[in-house]
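ARCHIVE RECORD
Type: protein–small molecule complex
Small molecule: iron/sulfur cluster
Source of inputs: curated submission
Record status: active
Notes field left blank by submitter.
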Amino acid sequence: MPDKSPVLSRRHLIKALGATMGIYVSRVRPQERADTAPSATPTISVDPNSPRATLLGFVTDHQQADQVRWQKKRGDVDGKQQCQSCALFNPTDANVGTCAIFDDRQVPAAGWCHAWTES
Ligand code: SF4
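STRUCTURE (tokenized, with ligand):
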């Protein structure tokens, strides 16, 4: 009768290795995913050249707003109209925040667009 113990041993080794790797993957992968998962804070900034931004005259510096085109900003002689004073602005840092008009993308605190609403 041939001795099959080396084959069984190899099979057992492969099974044991597979089981060990499975445990490793199931225990380590969630942690890795947690470390690399995108944060809840959006990091995408509004592109001033995007169609919506262009339509609303969005600028990253409120002083660069086209006051000929936007009468609303023309009347803002004291520079009060900035993202940081807008009701739609949600501050996330000292100089940035998110804007509901732009799908919660980042806008600078000193930005402006025609949708500015007094808070
Ligand atoms: S809606 Fe308000 S916060 Fe959003 S870009 Fe315009 S001025 Fe800034």
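CURATOR ANNOTATION: The longest strand covers residues 96-99.
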